[in-house]
Amino acid sequence: MKTLKYDIVVVGAGPAGSMTARNAAKGGANVLMIEKRQEIGSSLRCAEGISHKGIEKVGLKIDRKWVSTEVSGAKIVSPGGKVLKIDEKNAGNEVGMVLERHLFDKFVAMEAARAGADIMVKTSALDVIKENGVVKGVKAISYGEPVRIEAGCVVSADGYESQVARWAGIETVQKPSDITSCFQYRLTNIKHEQDFCEFIIGSIAPGGYVWIFPKGGDTANVGIGVLLSKLKKPGEVKMYLDKFIKSDSRLNCGQPVEAIAGAVSVSPPLDKTIMDGLMIVGDAARVIDPITGGGIANGLCTGMHAGNVLAKCAQAKDFTESVMQEYEDLWRAEMENRLWRNWMAKEKFLTLSDETLDSVINTIGEVGVEKVTVHNLLLAIKERHPELVKEFEDLL
Q1: Do the Cβ atoms of 119 and 39 come closer than 8 Å?
Q2: Helices (H), 199-318
Q3: CA-CA distances (angstroms) from residue 307 to 97, 252, 330?
Q4: Which CATH number fits domain 52-99+176-265: 3.30.9.10, 1.10.260.40, 1.20.1300.10, 1.10.357.10?
Q5: Residue pLDDT, tens place only, 221-230
Q6: Model-level pTM?
Q7: Which of 3, 58, 230, 242 has its CA 20 to 30 A from that of 66?
């Protein structure tokens, strides 16, 4: 069996994995990133929205090649049709640009390569290598041939279902109420508003929402997320979306040129994302926003911190948990409270009727907020509907 040796092996070439590889390699580490698919950026489960600041914060330069369109802001539409408009400056991490994700993911991977990282596609991890209980690399298969990759640290960047973390001994099983089943069309020949990403909430998408993300001209990503615990049979999520599209005169004239399906984690973050020889980033660390289901910006951010810390670890030749604690501290300080608060808000919103959601959107419009974050929205709700936030008001 072929054996390779690196300081760091990153499993998964999504934004979080590629950002980890890029920053670690820039810091002088010897890095290999492996991707199970033959094409980085293929087979995505994503509405493709991100803010300008989400890109700029991690030191990437925006390239028009992978920006499909730019939007002015977001519209939140209640079940009764009440509309709350938010400009991009005051909206969340998912609003500002709609990407061509297959091009964006390749771009970040190429940034990793330019920084000095090696990349192997069509290479699947099969298990972790452990010595005396410590992770020391991965066993993989590359183009049908077995390969042993020894490394000081394995980075789990393999999505919310993370097998790598589970193989290493970290629990990754989730409740159905913390998983959203998604289905999306790219529809063309439609009559949507091109300057806004649209989020439609209520019983049309139990436990989730319908989204319309412009892709330029008469085309948009039109999708739906429904909590797995709310579905009764296979294919039901597509039925919810088809029903909505049929009822909307802007969309029912459209034709699909692409359809994708998958699942997204809407859970709290993992309790632990490091152990001797292992680090977990991006969706695998469960840093997807539980309210929006968006994870690109958070994934990039964890990858940035991971890569920077791992570069230091490589210099010191020390990948013990205590040395990697800096990564855990950095990402948790930046987003852990927000992720927990948004998860608790998601749990509360699951109990609300369409009528109450109408009232909530109306209240936010009347009270007004200087900057529209989930935190500020909840503060506005607290002013008129304190009973809705009582369980987690200590996080506000």
Answers
A1: no
A2: 236-247, 296-316
A3: 25, 45, 12
A4: 3.30.9.10
A5: 999 999 999 9
A6: 0.92
A7: 242
